[in-house]
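step=encode ok
step=design start
structure_in=
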């Protein structure tokens, strides 16, 4: 029975994940490194990679700050609506990214959005620009930091924090010297997962960016455009770079975390 379950699990992961990803790698390097080097000289690709780094990096920083703060709020404090807030955090996991993009358009759209016209009259363009792309990316990756940090905070309890406060430490000292060292690997793992998710975000970003060529196209949007324009080698090369970055992040953290747990 155990062997059968193991075989089914391996076959499932292989057919659903390993095989399709390996085909991307195979097609990327089918003609050697030439197509990859040509892709990296394409101004459109270079701009999309730069924009992807800006959007993903900004979203990760936002989710890091608010993710840790909301985790502390959920675990260390009792307040009305706590369960509702915890449930809302998981909404990005169940709602389609396209819906997220449309929702942001309704709020920040320049013509009919709730705040869009006011912001644009003040010279701040949200939709079809980087700010809305960052917001959409941060939205879809929001739960990843929180769902890594909350279980660790619950497990370590607050005895050490109470002891530090009883000895005269203020809130900032308690956080930096007691709380953060205890949850640092959960934070790192959540950040890496958030980064991997942010690099590959497509649906929400496409809706709010407008996919303007050379301006608001991230790497995932360029993959789609190049593939539809029969520039498959460039599309495979950019797709490989995105997958490679995500896999490297997860592998590095997976190798580091056991060392921390054993120390």
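sequence_out=
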């Amino acid at each position: 029975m155990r062997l059968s379950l193991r075989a089914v699990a391996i076959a499932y992961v292989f057919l659903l994940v390993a095989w399709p990803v390996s085909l991307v790698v195979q097609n990327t390097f089918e003609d050697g490194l030439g197509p990859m080097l040509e892709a990296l000289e394409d101004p459109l690709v270079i701009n999309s990679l730069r924009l992807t780094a800006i959007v993903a990096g900004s979203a990760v920083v936002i989710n890091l700050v608010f993710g840790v703060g909301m985790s502390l709020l959920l675990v260390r404090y009792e307040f009305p609506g706590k369960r509702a807030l915890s449930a809302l955090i998981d909404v990005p996991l169940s709602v389609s990214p396209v819906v997220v993009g449309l929702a942001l358009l309704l709020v920040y759209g320049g013509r009919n959005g709730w705040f869009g016209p006011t912001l644009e009259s003040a010279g701040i363009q949200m939709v079809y620009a980087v700010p809305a792309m960052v917001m959409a990316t941060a939205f879809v990756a929001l739960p990843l930091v929180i769902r890594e940090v909350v279980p660790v905070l619950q497990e370590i309890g607050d005895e050490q924090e109470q002891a530090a406060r009883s000895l005269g430490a203020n809130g900032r000292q308690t956080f930096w010297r007691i709380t953060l060292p205890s949850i640092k690997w959960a934070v790192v793992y959540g950040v890496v997962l958030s980064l991997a998710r942010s690099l590959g975000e497509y649906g929400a970003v496409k809706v709010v960016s407008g996919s303007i060529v050379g301006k608001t196209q991230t790497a995932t949007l360029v993959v789609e455009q190049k593939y539809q324009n029969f520039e498959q080698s460039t599309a495979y090369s950019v797709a490989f770079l995105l997958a490679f970055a995500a896999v490297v992040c997860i592998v590095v953290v997976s190798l580091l975390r056991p060392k921390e747990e054993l120390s």
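step=design ok
step=annotate ok -> The mean pLDDT is 86.
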